[in-house]
Specification:
- The protein has about 240 residues and is α/β, with parallel strands linked by helices.
- It has 13 helices and 8 strands.
- The chain has one domain: Aldolase class I (TIM Barrel, Alpha-Beta Barrel), CATH 3.20.20.
Length: about 240
């Protein structure tokens, strides 16, 4: 059952709730797409594909210079000291969000090093993973149980929120309360026919009604005939949820 939208969630600007996944291979393509999207997107996620392009931080700076918010989706996973050092570096970049992955010690190291403005989000279970995949990994928990376990560890470690499917957003909001951020990938518009490699997907409206604060949308915008119109349609849907 979907939960009520919390009061802290209402304080997020509607236009910042949509995070566009800037999954393109190079700086030129990224800039062209951002320019094409114009005012329809205010918040961008840049992840591993661009991190291997040699232009990651140039793009980060370029986005911030244009008053865009940036989610650095790097899923840091290493010994706590190394994660701490990396988070300290990123805390000076102007990025708003950073993902980490791993155990309680890694989460705590990231939370302690994040500074005043950077928010640490812990990856729970990727939206491409199904229950059968967990069994193949030797994990004797359901997806829902594992997501909740990792989310509670993140909150206890002092992290700001989690990355989780909209299918788990409602129980997470109940367990975490109103303060933790829930950022939901695996979003597909109601009229979309493709899930691609995403297996636990929801619509924008269902994600927010279930307690998400932000949604991450990539291919439904990037691959649309008119990316600006696709992003604008999602922004209109968000406005319909929050008013």
């Amino acid at each position: 059952m979907a939960t009520a939208i919390t009061e802290p969630a209402r304080r997020i600007a509607n236009r910042d709730r949509l995070i566009f996944a800037l999954d393109v291979p190079d700086l030129k393509g990224a800039k062209e797409l951002v320019t094409r999207l114009g005012d329809s997107v205010a918040f961008y996620k840049i992840g591993l594909e661009l991190a291997t392009s040699r232009h990651y931080f140039e793009l980060l700076d370029w986005l911030i210079e244009r008053d865009k918010k940036v989610f650095t989706d790097l899923k840091l996973y290493d010994i706590p000291a190394t994660v701490s050092a990396a988070v300290k570096q990123l805390s000076r970049s102007g990025a708003s969000f950073l993902t980490v992955h791993g155990d309680r010690a890694i989460m705590e190291a990231a939370a302690l090093a994040k500074g005043e403005h950077l928010k640490i989000l812990v990856v729970t279970v990727l939206t491409s993973i199904a229950p059968s995949d967990l069994a193949a990994m030797g994990i004797d928990l359901s997806v829902e149980e594992l997501v909740l376990k990792r989310a509670l560890q993140a909150a206890a470690a002092g992290c700001d929120g989690v990355i989780a499917s909209g299918l788990e957003a409602a129980p997470l909001r109940t367990a975490l309360g109103p303060r933790s951020l829930i950022v939901t990938p695996g979003i597909r518009p109601a009229d979309g026919a493709r899930n691609d490699d995403q297996r636990r997907v929801v619509t924008p409206t269902l994600a927010f009604r279930s307690g998400a604060d932000h949604i991450v949308v990539g291919r439904p915008i990037r691959d649309a005939a008119d990316p600006y119109q696709a992003a604008t349609a999602i922004q209109d849907e968000i406005a319909g949820v929050f008013g």
